[in-house]
């Protein structure tokens, strides 16, 4: 897994996208690599008790998703949801994640409750990257997912 300084990762992704995605501008007060990195670092210090020493990935769609390695060795995913996200929904989602993880499903464990990050609401969970990506549109993958969820 490639690891770089968070600010460098953000700059590389923005360059690859060719523009600042709408959600980045919607969530971050200063949607530049230094401004975005500073906001994420401050949130991690406050809510995770450690700051990121490296970024592993960044994606932006309906929210911003950062894969981070923290100074204390943990690997986490910080998800920054837009301002319209419901904190109650995010709390309920984390309850489901905890229940799935406790039941042995490969679900990430929440490590930080929903909390403001600039104009958005951020959550954090353990980074799970075992196995490979699968296409959920593939009928065989859907069958395997359904079978796993239906197991007693």
Strand content: 25-35%
With helices defined by DSSP (H or I, 4 residues minimum), what is the helix count?
Answer: 5
Q: Could you estimate the helical fraction of the residues in percent?
A: 40-55%
**CA-atom Rg in angstroms:** 16 Å
* Largest sheet entry: 5 strands, antiparallel
Order of helices and strands: HHHEEEHEEH
CATH fold node name: Phosphorylase Kinase, domain 1
The total count of strands amounts to: 5
- Let me know the average pLDDT: 93
The name of the CATH architecture is: 2-Layer Sandwich
Structure description:
The chain has 152 residues and is of the alpha+beta class. The protein has a single domain (6-150), classed as Phosphorylase Kinase, domain 1 (2-Layer Sandwich), CATH 3.30.200.20. The protein contains five helices and five strands; from the N terminus they run αααβββαββα. It has helices spanning 6-17, 22-27, 33-48, 87-102, 139-150; strands spanning 52-60, 64-70, 75-81, 110-117, 120-126. Strands 1-2-3-5-4 form a five-stranded antiparallel β-sheet, with helices on both faces. α1 (6-17) crosses α3. The chain is globular and about 50 Å long. The N and C termini lie far apart (35 Å).
């Amino acid at each position: 897994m490639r690891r770089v300084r968070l600010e460098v990762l953000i700059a590389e992704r923005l360059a690859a996208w060719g523009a600042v995605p709408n959600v980045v501008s919607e969530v971050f007060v200063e949607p530049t690599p230094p401004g975005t990195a500073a906001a994420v670092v401050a949130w991690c210090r406050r809510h995770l008790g450690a700051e990121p020493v490296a970024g592993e990935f960044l994606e932006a769609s309906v929210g911003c998703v950062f894969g981070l390695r923290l100074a204390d060795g943990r690997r986490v995913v910080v998800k920054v949801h837009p301002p319209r996200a419901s904190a109650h929904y995010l709390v309920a989602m984390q309850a489901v994640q905890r229940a799935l993880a406790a039941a042995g499903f490969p679900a990430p464990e929440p490590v930080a409750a929903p909390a403001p990050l600039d104009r958005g609401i951020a959550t954090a969970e353990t980074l799970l990257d075992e196995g490979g990506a699968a296409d959920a549109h593939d009928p065989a993958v859907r069958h395997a997912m359904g079978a796993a969820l239906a197991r007693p």
